[in-house]
């Protein structure tokens, strides 16, 4: 059996996402302060708070 690997492709870690429901605006603001300038993206929409750690491919 022969296996070939394309050297042009690069394995990357998948992005990770967490969704928290029922979060108030104060919770969102607190999370922003806790995360600071780390590579974590935060979105907030009507009580849904999503935390995403983007893969290196997206950076």
Word description of this protein:
By secondary structure, this protein is of the alpha+beta class. The protein contains one helix and three strands; from the N terminus they run βαββ. A hairpin with a 2-residue loop joins strand 2 and strand 3. The longest helix has 11 residues, at 25-35. It starts with 15 loop residues before the first strand and ends in a 6-residue tail after the last strand. 0% of the residues are buried. The mean pLDDT is 82.
Question: What topology emerges from the helices and strands here?
Answer:
Blueprint: E1 16-20, H1 25-35, E2 41-45, E3 48-53
Antiparallel strand pairs: 1-3, 2-3
Q: Compute the separation of the termini in Å.
A: 37 Å
**Which overall shape is indicated by the principal axes computed on the Cα atoms?**
flat
For the largest beta-sheet, the strand count, sense and barrel status come to: 3 strands, antiparallel
Number of helices: 1
Helix/strand order: EHEE
Rg, please? Answer: 17 Å
Question: How much helical structure, as a percent, in the residues?
Answer: 10-25%
Low-confidence stretches: none
Q: Tell me, rounded to a whole number, the average pLDDT.
A: 82
- Lateral arrangement of strands in the main beta sheet: 1-3-2
Quote the beta fraction: 25-35%
Total number of domains: 1
Number of beta-strand segments: 3
Structural class: alpha+beta
